[in-house]
From TrEMBL:
Coiled-coil regions listed in the entry: none
Residue ranges of the TM segments: none
Keywords associated with the record: Oxidoreductase
UniProt KW tRNA processing keyword: no
Annotated organism of origin: Chryseolinea lacunae
Family the entry assigns: Belongs to the short-chain dehydrogenases/reductases (SDR) family.
Name listed for the protein in its UniProt record: SDR family oxidoreductase
Amino acid sequence: MKHAIVTGASKGLGKALAQAMAARGYDVLLVARSEALLEQLASEITQQHPVKAHCLALDLALPVSADQIAAWCADRGFQPSVLINNAGFACWGYFEKLSLALQLQMLNLHVQGMVALTHQLLPALRKHEQAYVLNVSSTTAYQAVPTLSLYAASKTFVRSFSRGLRYELRNSPVSVTCLSPGPMSTNFIAEANMHAMQQTAAKFEMTADEVARRGVKAMFNRRAEVIPGWMNRLTVVLSKVVPDALLERIASNLYQSKLS
């Protein structure tokens, strides 16, 4: 049986990614903080697909979480050939006014948690004839975004780390892909208290199911990066030719002007 781990699997894109892997015949280990939501998703998956769905409720922002996941896999003979690092959230507002503790929690989740879990599981992934890592970044990874400064910076790290690790592993069985979605019709905006951005985001939103489908397809095709949606791809292309100062002004007009 094929095994996959999906972090941040309780809702949104993580839930869609877990369902996409189950549809491909993978037993899944669902990891997130909410045990109730994980159990609900596990029940849905096992009803819809002939696979097993396991739940592990923990906070990936904590340093011990990667060790706990690796130990869980070893104890139960769960041998992942796919690791999907999706867990994340956003803090919207001025850096100096936002809670430092909350911002550091976000940074630990996006950076430390992803790095630690990937490092822990690479030996297990290498044991397979083919194995895959899918790291979820964002279109914000391609430019600085005032009022999402630390979020965008952390997603830049995810993208850079993914590309560097991919090259290091180019002669191994493990392929690394970076998924960089734009706005999605999930609870992301609500959880980041970005309600004022809802109307603007709705013009460009993709469904989580569609983003997950494209991300998983790109992962199995061993692509380096995937940016779902033509508008998102155009935005990224423009970010490479438009001066940084102009990009920052445009982003500020879009996000900062909506802050109450």
